[in-house]
Amino acid sequence: MTKSKLVLMGPDGFVSPHGAQTTVNVAGYYIHTAIHKARPDIVAAAHCHSIYGKTWSVFGKPIECLQQDGCMFYENLSVYENYGGVVLAEHEGNNIAAALGPKNKACILQNHGLLTLGNTVDEAIYLFGLLEKQCQLQLLAEAAAANGIPKKIISDEDAAYNAETEGDPEFVYFNFQPEYDLLLEETNGAFLK
């Protein structure tokens, strides 16, 4: 994916001449339009059917605070428990936006995938990558627990402290910068074109 391949589309559904002139993912349109309408505080939404996210989504459960980084999602994660098929109608996008509520920046879409929001594109992407890693960790921990190794879940008090400390949008933005720099280096900036 490169910058030149992104389609700029308004809430009215019309493609702007300032972006790529190509077909639009209808499901993405319904999801993103509903989110931006319900959450004007949000600048970006990231959604994908990543391997660990979609695998964990089959349980229709939130991740647990099993490790320090996962505390970022303490009281900041919802689960959309009603898989309504491919999002090809406005009401399904609205249901997903409602599941996020007024403040959550992450959602596990049951039998579907992950969705994260951000005050910046960087924040939305960082949260998405972090949630994907936490789904992987949760799956590994569940496998170990099924073999008799008990999980130690971080207390609500400690999780709340970590979430408050690390959940500031500026902190999240700056946490993404080393990953952004690496992406620039590895691609020689190709994604900016």
From TrEMBL:
<dbReference type="InterPro" id="IPR051017">
    <property type="entry name" value="Aldolase-II_Adducin_sf"/>
</dbReference>
<protein>
    <recommendedName>
        <fullName>Class II aldolase/adducin N-terminal domain-containing protein</fullName>
    </recommendedName>
</protein>
<dbReference type="InterPro" id="IPR036409">
    <property type="entry name" value="Aldolase_II/adducin_N_sf"/>
</dbReference>
<feature type="domain" description="Class II aldolase/adducin N-terminal">
    <location>
        <begin position="1"/>
        <end position="139"/>
    </location>
</feature>
<dbReference type="Pfam" id="PF00596">
    <property type="entry name" value="Aldolase_II"/>
</dbReference>
<dbReference type="InterPro" id="IPR001303">
    <property type="entry name" value="Aldolase_II/adducin_N"/>
</dbReference>
